[in-house]
Amino acid sequence: MRTQVGIIGAGPAGLLLSHLLHLRGISSVVLEKRSRDYVERRVRAGVLEQGTVDTLVEAGVGERLRREGLPHHGIELRYGGAGHRIAFEKLVPGRSITVYGQQEVVKDLIAARLAAGGDVRFEVEDVAVHGLEAEPYLTFGGERLDCDVIAGCDGFHGVSRPSVPEGVLSVFERDYPFAWLGILARVAPSSEELIYTRTERGFALHSMRSPTVSRFYLQVPADATVEEWPDERIWAELKARLESVPGFTLATGEIMEKGVTPMRAFVVEPMQYGRLYLAGDAAHIVPPTGAKGLNLAVADVRVLTDALAAYFENGSTALLDGYSEACLKRVWRAQHFSWWMTTLLHTFEDDDPYGRRLQLSYLDYVTSSEAAATTLAENYVGMP
Ligand code: FAS
Ligand code: PHB
């Protein structure tokens, strides 16, 4: 069996890459270890930058996103008993974000690939990478797929990055001393916009998925387990952290899903080796405070698609050779912004009283200076 691009992983990166390559007349096969139902139900990101929305709409997979996505023109920073709106329409006119669950993006992409006769294989076992230096191929479940190029879109725990020989990749990483407990609840949002809250009890985020479904996050200890967080405790803690301004009451409802996500930052350089190109979480992880993970995956895929099109259309390898450098500039900007938002809004146990005063002073500055607020706004909606 042969294809031009062998893609490992049917998350946003792998599926979007397969779709964009198809639009350029380039063949691919997507190999996914999980079931279709699993990847379509996996609750993850919720905020799409303008660039991500534009990419999906221009690629013809944004129709439901346009219909059901929730455009947002600001966020609230809530601390010290008061709320402060970061108004995108004032600070970065014409730019906004759209709230639309990652699982919805995945559903739209799978539907588009299958409607176009795309080769997306689920529940594939034992994918392995071979011949990266010259004649690449993938093996899986007793089969072999010969390809010109392999795209590692298999996330942080995938097989593609580990297939690069020792000593080639430089790893940059930072683990945070806490995690996020993510909650999906069948309850109307208690706020029209996202609320990022800093309290002495810890960080909380009020997001949403639709007019009837809310998404919340609580900062919890790094070793927290879901079992330690029964629904009653979750609602009590969300209320304790979010009901910190006069007149705000958090509505509660049925919790449909909850899970603990570690908070880590990770980058490998370069994001390529031989005929292997890494995209999305296979190459980098950001703490989700800046809502960048999914958007970075889309940005990588835009660059990789143009590079592969140049290669297959006229044999030019210049863009492929420059793939990592082109991606890493945006990756590191998102890494810094995600670190900045995380340190600005979370409580660190080893922080001393001086450190906490610095944090509050920075929040005062960001919510009172137009220049400082613009820094947050332009990074949050996505750098051009
Ligand atoms: P993904 O991890 O989405 O997809 C990789 C795919 O490869 C998976 O389907 C996996 O099953 C498959 N795979 C792995 N190994 C394989 C193998 N050996 N063979 C075949 N297939 C294999 N980002 C945000 O912006 N905001 C958030 O709120 C947010 N919350 C998150 C919560 C959680 C629990 C996690 C884990 C991540 C979260 N992220 C968030 C980041 C997330 O959205 C990623 O950035 C995004 O999924 C990246 O997409 P991909 O690179 O496609 O990787
Ligand atoms: C989400 O809605 O899942 C979400 C929103 C903003 C973030 C992280 C997650 O910073």
TrEMBL record:
<keyword id="KW-0560">Oxidoreductase</keyword>
<keyword id="KW-0503">Monooxygenase</keyword>
<protein>
    <submittedName>
        <fullName>p-hydroxybenzoate 3-monooxygenase</fullName>
    </submittedName>
</protein>
<dbReference type="InterPro" id="IPR036188">
    <property type="entry name" value="FAD/NAD-bd_sf"/>
</dbReference>
<dbReference type="GO" id="GO:0071949">
    <property type="term" value="F:FAD binding"/>
</dbReference>
<dbReference type="Pfam" id="PF01494">
    <property type="entry name" value="FAD_binding_3"/>
</dbReference>
<dbReference type="InterPro" id="IPR050641">
    <property type="entry name" value="RIFMO-like"/>
</dbReference>
<dbReference type="InterPro" id="IPR002938">
    <property type="entry name" value="FAD-bd"/>
</dbReference>
<keyword id="KW-0285">Flavoprotein</keyword>
<feature type="domain" description="FAD-binding">
    <location>
        <begin position="2"/>
        <end position="337"/>
    </location>
</feature>
<keyword id="KW-0274">FAD</keyword>
<dbReference type="GO" id="GO:0016709">
    <property type="term" value="F:oxidoreductase activity, acting on paired donors, with incorporation or reduction of molecular oxygen, NAD(P)H as one donor, and incorporation of one atom of oxygen"/>
</dbReference>
